[in-house]
Amino acid sequence: MAAQRVFNLQQLTEHNSKQDCWLAIHGKVVDVTKFLEDHPGGDQVLLEVAGKEATKEFEDIGHSKVAKELVLEYQVGLLQGHKHSDPDDHHAALDDLKETIKVVGKEMTGFVIKDDVQQHALTRKVFGQLFDHAVPLAVVFALLWYRFSPLFSEMMN
Ligand code: HEM
């Protein structure tokens, strides 16, 4: 994975307009400028938290898995000093762990699927070529056998 740029709160605060809108969600700094118009919840809610830590607002809505994955697409870096979770807050710690597993799992599944697809493509190619030649060859052999087999039997006798 490429090294992430780290921004502090001051730097985050500078990106607080419609033309340049950043937020921080779960320690990830996201540039949502290009997403403002596409956000299903409207641009206004995003502009209200522009340049701010918006994890609570993001979680309060109960965003879907799709939304959580979209955050990764808009991520431009990490927020300096972000504490992943309070070690005593077991629910938050578990959520963080789940999120990490999801991200790592997604990357691994992506790799396995890709590998699998390549393997299938190769198998299809080999069998495809075999069938391409095997079928016409079988037809030719059958015709030859049909035409010459009485001759062969006569010669043998
Ligand atoms: C990068 C950040 C964000 C992404 C990618 C994102 C994405 C989405 C998506 C995909 C939906 C559709 C519903 C769903 O799939 O959950 C949605 C709905 C919504 N979002 Fe966001 N969102 C972001 C940040 C925020 C923030 C910070 C707020 C609040 C301050 C917010 C408020 C809402 C609201 C109010 C809805 C509408 C919910 C509804 O109609 O039921 N979003 N968002």
From TrEMBL:
Superkingdom as given in the UniProt entry: Eukaryota
EC number: 1.14.14.81
Top enzyme category: oxidoreductase
Alphabetical keyword list: Oxidoreductase
Protein name: Flavonoid 3'5'-hydroxylase protein
Organism annotation: Dioscorea alata (Purple yam)
